[in-house]
Amino acid sequence: MAHKTALQSLAMLVLATVLASLATMSAANAQAAPNSFIVLLDVSGSMGEASDSDPTRTKLEVAQEALKDAADEVTPGSMNLGLRTFSGCGTSSTDLLLPVQSADPEAFKVAVDNATAGGQTNITNALQDAVSDLPVAGQRTILLVSDGEDTCN
User: Fold this and answer.
1) What is the arrangement of strands in the sheet containing 94-102, beginning at the earlier edge strand?
2) Which residues pair with 82 in a beta bridge?
3) For the segment 67-83, what is each residue's pLDDT rounded down to a tens digit?
4) Among candidates 125, 130, 127, which has minimal Cα distance to 92?
5) Residue 104: in which H helix or E strand, if any?
6) Is the full-model pTM beyond 0.85?
7) Which residues pair with 50 in a beta bridge?
8) Cα–Cα distances in angstroms (integers) from residue 136 to residues 80, 101, 131, 143, 151, in the given order
């Protein structure tokens, strides 16, 4: 169990670091097309369970805090940023909460706060939809935030 807790903590640290690094890279390359970045946030039922690292909060709350902390490091307009959530096994198992557009950290944080947990984990559909959310040209990144494996495919 301690190994799983350490991995969850490491994953949240990596998440914040990656998002902040991409924002810095985009700002440094302002003359080139901005990087496009979409976060896929697992909102399956297991994300509503208590976090191993902090049993007073859910896994989703821990992930939301990490995403909002990372968003605080993003300069508005420095990159394209979006948010898609996923749960359930149907064809409409993902929701685009924030289209990939010029970064607005405050809008991103509001979208993150609107995520609620319930359903199964459909990573396959989420990844397929995220590819469609990103522009066809330029640096494109998908960040998957999940506590588990695909339970639908």
Assistant:
1) 94-102, 80-86, 36-42, 140-145
2) 38
3) 999 999 999 999 999 99
4) 125
5) none
6) no
7) 58
8) 13, 13, 9, 17, 29
